[in-house]
């Protein structure tokens, strides 16, 4: 798209403009009417002045003056109608464009967002789309209007006095050349400005969402300086753009109004010679001003088109980015309800071309209702293995099946409806408790929501809020404790009622009471469901039906706890590390004794 002309993005907008053909056609007619009135104005002024100074006809003078007032009223009505129609169309088209862009982005897999800054994507949806809206609302109508004014005025001055026409048109060639050269420069600078601004917005968004981390490390001043550097770089680019625009304005103004001065000089000589009436000279002068104004406006609009072209390129680049996880052409279906039989068959995976393989030929079967715990050092492939089941990524070798159906052959919505995910750090949304819980199932009744909250031990603390379930919990659930966020997330998945669960247990330290409540809520959630757990807690490891030990993308050991302690040195080391950490947090007494019994292998 980089090689396309500045106005090329309009062709990409055409499908979105097509439903508004009637409004655009009416707006075009109104622009024509308004332009015709504007072009008729100098002719009426000529008649008015000649009537006053040459014919000395008072009646004609009055009639021409009244006709001018009537035309101005009609033009006001026409301008109102055209302005409303173009504003209405631009609002609708850009709203649809933003909706399409958001809808396209939200279907991209997690890996897409891992490679891009969220603030940059937000800038595309907001700022870049806003530039396109401005062009549709003001730029295109004015481009058409001023183009008509230019053509119409040139024709009329040629008819009025060909000799003066040549003098009037001397401004056009240098103006067009300046607009072409400087307009392209503005386009490049504007693209850089939007990219730098997106980087600054992305940094600000990261700081705002991680403000506790920033303040705990006393990095406020460092972040302020880093943000200021981004903004100052944006400012410097903006000043460069201002210089280019100001230079264009200066050149256009000088050439256009220089031409008007020449018209005045030459026209005055013709009046003195008796070859031109004063009214005709004034009419010609008004046409010259119209031509100069049209040329000036068109040059300015050209730079705006260049800027909007850069914004449109970024938006359509995102819209053209292929959906990395395609829906199947002929989708299969899971049983109703799903049984929860999960199989990994020779699964291999890498995050991108040229990157090392993360999983190497994984074979694994989870029986309906079985709980399987994944343990391993960081980077062993636990989260990757779990993420392939709801098809957050596509396998690069082998296949993953649910109830015998390859997950790539099932529509994503149907597949993911059968799978519930409780992440390590539950993400809640700014809004009420009701809204966050109903994210699990939009049509859940109040009673169902409360039942899920009770089962997850969330109702107790929700009921204590001043506004109960209507309580706003802030962005990312910041007003809740870690344990409360986990219980709300568990209740949300309970409402969804999936056949298969993926649990990435939170490794953040919870107090003993919160951990007990969360574990009890998880036990209720897991009951009767196939569960794949990325295990952090010793208690979960001990409760699992099977434990898989992953190392460098391979399953190196499998079995029950006591057997693995005896047969797998890696598992014993991992378990011992967990045990020592748990001992340190549990202290002496009954808790430590229970853990010691687990270490001895009796807690299988």
- How would you sum up the global shape? elongated
| pLDDT < 50 stretches | 588-604
> How far is the N terminus from the C terminus?
62 Å
Helical residues, percent? 55-70%
Write the CATH architecture name of the largest domain: Up-down Bundle
Q: Give the name of the CATH superfamily of the largest domain.
A: ABC transporter type 1, transmembrane domain
Count of DSSP E strands? 10
Oligomeric state of the chains?
single chain
Q: How many structural domains can be distinguished in the coordinates?
A: 2
| Major beta sheet, strand line-up | 6-7-8-3-9-10
Description:
This protein has helices at 9-17, 21-55, 58-106, 110-114, 118-160, 162-168, 172-209, 211-216, 220-272, 278-320, 382-388, 412-417, 433-437, 446-455, 459-462, 482-496, 512-526, 538-543, 561-567, 569-586, 590-599; strands at 342-350, 357-366, 371-376, 397-402, 405-406, 419-422, 500-504, 530-534, 546-551, 554-559. The protein is built from 21 helices and 10 strands. The strands form 2 sheets. It has a 6-stranded mixed beta sheet, sandwiched between helices. It has a 4-stranded antiparallel beta sheet with strand order 2-1-4-5, with helices on one face. It folds into 2 domains: 9-320, Up-down Bundle (ABC transporter transmembrane region fold), CATH 1.20.1560; 342-418 and 498-599, Rossmann fold. The chain has 604 residues and is an alpha/beta fold. The longest helix has 53 residues, at 220-272.
């Amino acid at each position: 798209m980089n090689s396309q002309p500045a106005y090329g993005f309009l062709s990409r907008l055409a499908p979105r403009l097509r439903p508004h053909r009637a409004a655009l056609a009416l707006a075009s007619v109104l622009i024509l009417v308004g332009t015709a009135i504007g072009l008729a104005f100098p002719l009426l002024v000529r008649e008015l002045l000649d009537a006053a100074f040459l014919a000395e006809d008072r009646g004609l003078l009055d009639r021409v003056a009244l006709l001018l007032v009537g035309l101005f009223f009609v033009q006001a009505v026409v301008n109102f109608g055209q302005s409303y129609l173009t504003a209405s169309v631009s609002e609708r088209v850009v709203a649809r464009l933003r909706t399409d862009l958001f809808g396209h982005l939200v279907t991209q897999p997690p890996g897409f967002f891992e490679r891009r800054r969220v603030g940059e994507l937000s800038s595309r949806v907001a700022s870049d789309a806003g530039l396109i809206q401005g062009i549709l609302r003001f730029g295109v109508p004015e481009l058409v209007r001023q183009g008509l004014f230019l053509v119409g005025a040139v024709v009329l001055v040629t008819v009025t006095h060909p000799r003066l026409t040549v003098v009037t048109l001397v401004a056009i060639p240098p103006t067009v050349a300046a607009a072409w050269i400087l307009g392209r420069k503005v386009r490049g600078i504007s693209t850089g400005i939007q990219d730098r601004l997106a980087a600054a917005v992305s940094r600000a968004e990261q700081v705002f969402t991680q403000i506790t981390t920033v303040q705990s490390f006393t990095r406020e001043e460092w972040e302020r300086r880093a943000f200021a550097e981004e903004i100052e770089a944006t400012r410097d680019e903006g000043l460069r753009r201002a210089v280019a625009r100001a230079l264009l304005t200066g050149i256009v103004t000088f050439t256009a109004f220089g031409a008007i001065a020449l018209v005045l000089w030459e026209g005055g000589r013709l009046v003195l010679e008796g070859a031109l009436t004063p009214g005709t000279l004034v009419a010609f002068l008004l046409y010259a001003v119209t031509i100069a104004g049209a040329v000036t406006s068109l040059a300015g609009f050209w730079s705006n088109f260049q800027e909007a072209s850069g914004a449109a390129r970024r938006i359509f680049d995102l819209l053209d980015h292929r959906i990395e996880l395609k829906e199947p052409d002929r989708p299969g279906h899971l049983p109703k309800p799903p049984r929860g039989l999960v199989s990994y068959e020779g699964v291999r995976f890498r995050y991108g071309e040229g990157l090392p393989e993360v999983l190497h030929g994984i074979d694994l079967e989870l029986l309906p209702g079985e709980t399987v715990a994944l343990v391993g050092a960081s980077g062993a492939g636990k989260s990757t293995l779990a993420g392939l089941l709801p098809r957050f990524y596509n396998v690069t070798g082998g296949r993953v099946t649910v109830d015998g159906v390859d997950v790539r052959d099932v529509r994503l919505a149907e597949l993911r409806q059968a799978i519930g995910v409780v992440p390590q750090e539950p993400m809640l949304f700014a809004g009420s408790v009701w809204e966050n819980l109903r994210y699990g199932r939009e049509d859940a009744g109040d009673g169902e929501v409360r039942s899920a909250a009770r089962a997850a031990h969330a109702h107790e603390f929700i009921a204590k809020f001043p506004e109960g379930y209507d309580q706003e919990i802030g962005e990312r659930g910041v007003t809740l404790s870690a344990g409360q966020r986990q219980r709300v997330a568990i209740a949300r998945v309970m409402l969804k009622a999936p056949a298969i669960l993926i649990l990435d247990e939170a490794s953040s330290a919870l107090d003993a009471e919160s951990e007990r409540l969360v574990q009890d809520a998880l036990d209720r959630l897991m009951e009767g469901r196939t569960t794949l757990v990325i295990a952090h807690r010793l208690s979960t490891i001990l409760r699992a039906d099977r434990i898989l030990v992953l190392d460098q993308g391979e399953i190196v050991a499998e079995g029950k706890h006591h057997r693995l302690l005896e047969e797998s040195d890696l598992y014993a080391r991992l378990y011992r590390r967990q045990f020592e950490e748990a001992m340190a947090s549990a202290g002496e007494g009954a808790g430590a004794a229970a853990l010691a019994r687990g270490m001895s292998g009796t807690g299988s």
